[in-house]
Amino acid sequence: VLLALIFAFGYKITVDTDSLARTDFINNKLNEELNQHSNLLEEEIQERTQELQQLATHDKITGLFNRYEFEKRLTNLLKFSPTSSSKNILCYLDLDQFKVVNDTSGHVAGDELLKQIAFIMQKNVGPNDLVSRLGGDEFGILFTSNTLNQVHDKALNLLKAIKRYRFCWEDKIFVVGASMGLVEITRDSSSLLEVVASADAACYAAKEQD
Q1: Mean pLDDT in each 10-residue stretch from start to end of the chain (210 residues)?
Q2: pTM for the complete prediction?
Q3: Candidate list 111, 137, 200, 210, residue with the active-site label
Q4: Does the annotation count 137 as an active-site position?
Q5: Which of 18, 82, 110, 151 could form a disulfide with 143 if both were Cys (CB 3.0 to 4.6 A apart)?
């Protein structure tokens, strides 16, 4: 009866399919844009997270491991040294002419020198050896699974490479040297402070002999 009355009064029920199609198109477009924005945001978060992790473990100037990460890995190595048969050597290296470069050419030149020295160091150590900038012009190298004789040869080659290097900045040429102290990590090595202090003392003694 109701249907008959509707048609009797002349009412029409129509659906605008064009408007629905436009609405669906707009919604799909918005969803695509939201998905793209979400993906870009996720990529940016991952990049920022990686940057923060890099800053937490690496030196900003040289890209080498920083002191915190170096000491953490050295501490872990000391934990296993009583039961390990591997030979590990700690090297403490100090540049001899870094202050001269900083004083005469400024900190920008000093930072560039540190980058170049870091590159030389990485070229003259093994793939499993750990190189770190400890601060200022001081570096640490952890020679892993090496005998003292093997490390001695590597150390001499590294010192020769640094001594041969000529750092050029503007109208000046600098000859840079380095001093080095080596300490073997044995089963009797007790603590991080003791090992680092021994390597530092050996480096200072080498510097005094020059």
Answers
A1: 50 55 72 74 64 74 95 87 70 93 94 96 92 95 85 92 95 93 83 90 87
A2: 0.73
A3: 137
A4: yes
A5: 151
